[in-house]
């Protein structure tokens, strides 16, 4: 036990009239939404790295947070776990997520790092049994240490490739041991700074082979969760191979993995790629590879990934609209890949950031469900494409240019533009959010 969160009560649902900051106003785990408990729809997870491992630095300044568990020993790692599970108890969210480097100290050798990870895994197991908190996904940090400065799976040094493979194996093993619902691969530095020293074809082949080995190992150990890739453009390298949903789907198709791997899609990364969050979710839904989401937001005045907690209900509602259209989460969920601002120093800030974010997501989910149940948006879409339901029109998609051209002249077709009614649909959405 720690005293870090002393005096902070367990957060409970008290409705919109709550007279305290320390309450859920919209997130009621047991509320039925489209015939399913809200908790089971949203499947909230706390990100271990931002909440407990991040020290408050940015590109222009170092540590601002002073946490008693910051340090390089196993005792520090266990104190961090104590604080984490105390916070999980306060929030009552069902899941958490972690990288290996978040939870254990780096050893002098790979074997020592692995043993440290296995030791903290056993410690996690006890706490998970005591609290009922589960693991949404595990992953490996293959980007922070200097050995990965040129990537991991795509590294020009085969020894780094081997080290990365061994690291992922150990992380998959502990994810399996803790009953993780998914395993995520985030290619933090799988890209290049300059083509002057890069063999892009070779690196793509290495990445494809690495992912194939991950899929094969998951089957070997009987991992029945989902393997996920997280898209991210640019940052930290000039060009990331996992740029966005479309790029990754092409990669999966190239290596025959489109039926084996799904995506963990982050709002902030979608924005960096020049897309909206709902665009990336909709495209993944169309491809059948939508697995899980990282919920956060970027500062639109900054050109980098600021990882702020979500506070925009209309944006969140459109995101969950696509999730619901995809049938909702299976093994996936809503992970808060979000961090405090470096001036938000207090334990209360960490709790209330999650409370507010969970309420925003609850409001967004309910709005999305109401939109789907109303059916107005889908009806408008159906009406817009109704002409394609006629046999003479749908048949064009299996016809040829000459036959279609002959029809245009024979029937004297002279199509006139029809309104897309965008503003009307935006007004419709605003009825719900």
Automatic annotation (TrEMBL):
An example Gene Ontology CC term for this record: cytoplasm
Residue numbers binding Mg(2+) 1: 230, 266, 294, 337
Alphabetically ordered keywords of this record: Carbohydrate metabolism, Cytoplasm, Isomerase, Magnesium, Metal-binding, Xylose metabolism
Xref: InterPro entries: Xyl_isomerase-like_sf, Xyl_isomerase-like_TIM-brl, Xylose_isom_bac, Xylose_isomerase
Residues that bind Mg(2+) 2: 266, 269, 305, 307
Keyword Chaperone: no
EC number: 5.3.1.5
Subunit structure: Homotetramer.
The protein's name: Xylose isomerase
Similarity remark: Belongs to the xylose isomerase family.
Catalytic activities: alpha-D-xylose = alpha-D-xylulofuranose
Organism of provenance: Roseivivax halodurans JCM 10272
Gene Ontology BP terms: D-xylose metabolic process
MF terms (GO), sorted A to Z: magnesium ion binding; xylose isomerase activity
């Amino acid at each position: 036990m720690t005293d870090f969160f002393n005096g902070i009560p367990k957060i409970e649902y008290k409705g919109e009239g709550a007279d305290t900051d320390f309450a859920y106003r919209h997130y009621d785990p047991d509320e039925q939404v489209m015939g399913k408990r809200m908790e089971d729809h949203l499947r909230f997870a706390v990100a271990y790295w931002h909440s407990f491992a991040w020290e408050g630095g940015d590109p222009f300044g170092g540590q601002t947070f002073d946490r008693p568990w910051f340090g390089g020993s196993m005792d520090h790692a266990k104190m961090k776990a104590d604080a984490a599970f105390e916070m999980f108890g306060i929030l009552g969210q069902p899941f958490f997520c972690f990288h290996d480097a978040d939870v254990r100290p780096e050893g002098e050798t790979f074997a020592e790092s692995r043993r440290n990870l296995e030791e903290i895994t056993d410690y996690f197991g006890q706490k998970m049994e005591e609290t009922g908190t589960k693991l949404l996904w595990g992953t490996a940090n293959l980007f922070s240490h200097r050995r990965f400065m040129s990537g991991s799976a795509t590294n020009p040094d085969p020894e780094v490739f081997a080290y990365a493979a061994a690291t992922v194996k150990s992380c998959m093993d502990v994810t399996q041991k803790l009953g993780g619902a998914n395993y995520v691969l985030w290619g933090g530095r799988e890209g290049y700074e300059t083509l002057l020293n890069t063999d892009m074809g070779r690196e793509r082949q290495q990445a494809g082979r690495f992912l194939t080995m991950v899929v094969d190992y998951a089957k070997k150990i009987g991992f029945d969760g989902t393997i996920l890739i997280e898209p991210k453009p640019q940052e930290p390298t000039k060009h990331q191979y996992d740029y966005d949903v479309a790029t990754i789907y092409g990669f999966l198709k190239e290596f025959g993995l489109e039926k084996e791997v799904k995506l963990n899609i982050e709002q902030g990364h979608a924005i960096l790629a020049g897309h909206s969050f709902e665009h990336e979710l909709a495209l993944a839904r169309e491809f059948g590879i939508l697995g899980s989401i990282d919920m956060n937001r970027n500062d639109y005045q900054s050109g980098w990934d600021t990882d702020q907690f979500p506070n925009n209900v209309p944006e969140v509602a459109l995101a969950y609209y696509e999730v619901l259209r995809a049938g909702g989460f299976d093994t996936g969920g809503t992970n808060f890949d979000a961090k405090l601002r470096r001036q938000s120093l207090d334990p209360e800030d960490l709790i209330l950031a999650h409370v507010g974010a969970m309420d925003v997501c609850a409001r967004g989910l309910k709005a999305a469900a109401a939109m789907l149940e109303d059916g107005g948006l889908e009806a408008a879409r159906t009406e817009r494409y109704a002409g394609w339901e006629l046999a003479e029109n749908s048949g064009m998609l299996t016809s040829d240019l000459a036959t279609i051209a002959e029809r245009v002249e024979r029937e004297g077709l002279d199509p006139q533009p029809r309104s897309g009614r965008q503003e009307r649909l935006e007004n419709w959405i605003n009825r719900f959010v």
